[in-house]
Prior knowledge:
By secondary structure, chain A is mostly beta strands. Chain A contains no helices and eleven strands. Helix content of chain B is 0%, strand content 55%.
Amino acid sequence: ETGVTQTPRHLVMGMTNKKSLKCEQHLGHNAMYWYKQSAKKPLELMFVYSLEERVENNSVPSRFSPECPNSSHLFLHLHTLQPEDSALYLCASSQDSYNEQFFGPGTRLTVL
Amino acid sequence: GQQVMQIPQYQHVQEGEDFTTYCNSSTTLSNIQWYKQRPGGHPVFLIQLVKSGEVKKQKRLTFQFGEAKKNSSLHITATQTTDVGTYFCAGQGDSNYQLIWGAGTKLIIKP
């Protein structure tokens, strides 16, 4: 499946680093999402963009900063992360808010 | 806040046995979706249920949405090794943009 791509697939960073995760969808969808998936926890929705406008922000710490420059691209900028932020970060897109979501392969993030 | 409880957390079955996972919402849902995540993979959409009491089948998989639109189940008949993975339900609640995810049920086939 190549509908939603994410880079990098793996990322190891120190707590003082700044890095960015990239997501691109080739499906012509209007909504894009960032999720965090940690072991033994439900999927945690972080941010939602609809038509490039942020519509949901679920009390995510400011060390995570999303950016949606157009309807096909979504970024998650990371700075001064904590070890507990280590997780799989998944990007998803959907045609609109009531349709199924298509997920990318995720970025496995490790914070040292 | 709105929550979706999913049980069991794990289910170990012999190949050929049946598997069932259940989801219960604290509030009425507009729809519920089911996803499967293979080990090392990402969630993949299986189905969406919208109507009260709806039942849908996909080969050996049967999905149900309760009459009150607060609970749902996924039943797999005669499991196969290809069924291994974690099954998630996700309900659409009050917010148009937010799915409320269950914690998932991991299907494990006993060797």
